[in-house]
Specification:
The chain is of the alpha+beta class. It contains seven helices and seven strands; from the N terminus they run ααβββααββββααα. The longest helix is centred in the last third of the chain and has 20 residues.
Length: about 200
């Protein structure tokens, strides 16, 4: 009987210290992606279906932070299926989110189904740039759009793509709206460096 009490205490401590549901969901998404057909086109779109559940809502619609959480899981699946995770592992590299922005156009309400469409739009010498769209299955409206800059650590997007495609891949042009956002990131970075005196130190 005592072991049940210790187990309960351990579970309470675990759920108090860690976002256990996040890690369980991530493990489930990655496992499922391993058994799905691969996405041969690295820039190809992947679609994941979802539905707004009571745990996702505030004020009757999907909480803003839940959109970003869903995008996390969709990127895990995308990188498994298109081989990017495999390439990073082979190259001894890693990736982190360097920036993201999301525009909410219409709330997704409780019980409403949606498709999360994710794709790599383009890249530069340091980062992949992704677009992720939440599309309502009720009327086909794009309810939210997110851009994500995924920085590659200890490698580069070109090396990742050469590993996957066995050749140099031509970089697609930056869409106008994405280029405006990239310019904002650059301007913000320069302003913060100047504010912290980093520009003077590097001269």
């Amino acid at each position: 009987m005592w072991w049940l009490m210790w187990l309960l205490v351990a579970l309470v401590a675990l759920f108090s210290c860690l976002d256990v549901w996040y890690f369980l969901r991530a493990a489930a998404v990655i496992t499922r992606a391993w058994f799905q057909s691969p996405v041969r086109d690295v820039t190809g779109e992947q679609v994941q279906s979802g539905r707004v559940l009571p745990r996702d809502i505030d004020m009757g619609h999907m909480n803003n932070a839940r959109y970003l959480r869903e995008c996390d899981f969709a990127r895990f699946s995308l990188y498994i299926r298109n081989g990017v995770f495999k390439a990073l592992r082979a190259l001894g590299a890693n990736m982190v989110v360097g920036a993201s922005t999301i525009r909410y156009r219409r709330p997704l309400c409780v019980g409403e189904g949606f498709e999360l469409r994710s794709r790599i739009v383009t890249w530069d010498d340091k980062s992949f740039f992704l677009e992720q769209r939440f599309v309502s299955t009720k009327d086909g409206l794009v309810c939210a759009v997110m851009y994500c800059r995924q920085n590659i650590i200890r490698s580069s997007p070109d090396k990742v793509l050469q590993y996957l495609c066995k050749r140099k891949v031509e970089c697609p042009e930056f869409p106008e709206d994405l280029q405006h956002w990239v310019n904002f990131i650059s301007a913000s970075s320069q302003a913060l460096r100047a504010e912290g005196g980093l520009e003077e130190k590097t001269k």
